[in-house]
């Protein structure tokens, strides 16, 4: 698959939809979404629908999130250029690519081996490569590279992974869906001190579950 003028036109329509219908007003996030060819992260059978606001199945029985969810989660990070971001759940690499397109310094973890390898290959092809890409357990984070300015969890956790909060800088933010498998609340935690966090809620979503360990 190539990134044609038709695909670029559909991306522009998607960005207009995210701005005008969903209410995403972070122009840097919209610009990054306009830059990343989402159809290249999907199976070719979904190519014609890649720029609709829909989730699709990907490898390892996982899903690629709705573009609106990617835009909303990314906007909630309030990213500044070159900030260190830890992404939990690389998936097919689409969200990772959006973060890299925002000029963030991205560290990302994936527990599914085939997804990790797919994303590595795809991001290399697109020259949207994170600083560090890891196959491992997202609950553990990446303490070697901590602290991080921002942490983005792209899967739903039933309980708050406190180890990740420890890896945030003071003043840093973590965006994470929290709750039972059938529905989570999108949350943002801002680290005020080593023991104090501000907590905000941003509505109900449905994400694939966050799981321990790795899957070869």
TrEMBL record:
Q: Which Pfam families match?
A: PCMT
Q: Which UniProt keywords apply?
A: Cytoplasm, Methyltransferase, S-adenosyl-L-methionine, Transferase
Recorded hits in InterPro entries, A to Z, give: PCMT, SAM-dependent_MTases_sf
S-adenosyl-L-methionine: is it a keyword of this entry? Answer: yes
Subcellular locations according to the entry: Cytoplasm
Respond yes or no to whether keyword Methyltransferase is given for this record. Answer: yes
What top-tier enzyme class does this entry carry?
transferase
Q: What is its EC number?
A: 2.1.1.77
What domain of life?
A: Bacteria
PANTHER family, per database record = PROTEIN-L-ISOASPARTATE O-METHYLTRANSFERASE, PROTEIN-L-ISOASPARTATE(D-ASPARTATE) O-METHYLTRANSFERASE
Family designation: Belongs to the methyltransferase superfamily. L-isoaspartyl/D-aspartyl protein methyltransferase family.
Q: What is this protein called?
A: Protein-L-isoaspartate O-methyltransferase
Q: Which organism is it from?
A: Kaistella solincola
């Amino acid at each position: 698959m190539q990134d044609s003028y038709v695909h670029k036109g559909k991306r522009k329509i998607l960005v207009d939809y995210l701005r005008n219908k969903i209410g995403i007003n972070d122009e840097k996030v919209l610009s990054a979404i306009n830059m990343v060819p989402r159809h290249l992260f999907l199976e070719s059978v979904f190519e014609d629908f890649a720029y609709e606001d829909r989730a699709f199945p990907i490898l390892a029985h996982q899903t690629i999130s709705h573009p609106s969810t990617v835009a909303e989660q990314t906007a909630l990070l309030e990213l500044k250029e070159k900030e260190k971001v830890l992404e939990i759940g690389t998936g097919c690499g689409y969200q990772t690519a959006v973060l890299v397109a925002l000029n963030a310094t991205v560290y990302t973890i994936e527990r599914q081996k085939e997804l990790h390898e797919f994303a590595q290959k795809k991001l290399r092809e697109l020259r949207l490569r994170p600083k560090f890409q890891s196959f491992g357990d997202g609950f553990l984070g990446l303490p070697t590279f901590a602290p991080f300015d921002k942490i983005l969890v792209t899967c739903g956790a039933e309980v708050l992974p406190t180890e990740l909060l420890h890896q945030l800088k003071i003043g840093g933010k973590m965006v994470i869906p929290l709750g039972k498998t059938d529905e989570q609340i999108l949350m943002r935690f801002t680290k005020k001190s080593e023991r104090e966090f501000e907590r905000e809620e941003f509505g109900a979503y449905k994400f694939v579950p966050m799981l321990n360990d790795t899957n070869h």
